[in-house]
Amino acid sequence: MKLVSGKTTLWLAMTFLSVAVALGQGGATGGNAAGAAILQRACSGCHGADAIANHHFETADGYRDIVTTMIDAGAPVTPQELPVLVDYLFTTYGKKPAAGAAPPSKK
Ligand code: HEC
Q1: Pocket around ligand 1: residues whose beta carbon is below 6 Å from it?
Q2: Which fold does the domain 28-93 belong to in CATH?
Q3: How far is CA 26 from CA 50, 85, 87, 93, in A?
Q4: Whose CA is nearest to atom 41 of ligand 1?
Q5: What is the pLDDT of residues 21-32, one digit of tens each?
Q6: 19 CA → ligand 1 middle, Å
Q7: What is the rounded CA–CA span in Å between residue 104 and residue 8?
Q8: What would the 3-class secondary structure string for 16-29 be?
Q9: Is the entire prediction scored with pTM above 0.70?
Q10: Whether 87 contacts 60, CB under 8 Å
Q11: Residue ranges covered by each domain of the chain
């Protein structure tokens, strides 16, 4: 059995680094990529991660409420991950004013 050479180790390190950079840049923001990963990991254990996909709230609080309820039910989301996930859900599924339309009046 041959040990991994120093050159290979360096190559691997650089490969992982460029993947990390690509994930950070790939259309979504770095925060969104992290949020998507949390959603997959923490939410797909009991039901599809897309259970949330048909909820379109106008504020992030709607998502925070559901995620908090799911954490109580056992979803493994840390306090540090909560805002990342809520931000991801809101930017991905939240209700946005139609492009070009006037912003909705606040009551
Ligand atoms: C421990 C198991 C479990 C995990 C993990 C879990 N859920 Fe759930 N989820 C449930 C159960 C059980 C229900 C159905 C009970 C209910 O509707 O009150 C549900 C229902 C839902 C619903 C539908 C509720 C509604 O009001 O329509 C949404 C949306 C949802 N989960 C989102 C999530 C998200 C987002 C995560 C990750 C943060 C998550 N769930 C993780 C068990 C889980």
Answers
A1: 42-43, 45-47, 51-52, 55, 66-67, 70, 73-75, 77
A2: Cytochrome Bc1 Complex; Chain D, domain 2 (1.10.760)
A3: 21, 18, 18, 19
A4: 43
A5: 444 444 445 568
A6: 31
A7: 56
A8: HHHHHHHHHHCCCC
A9: yes
A10: yes
A11: 28-93
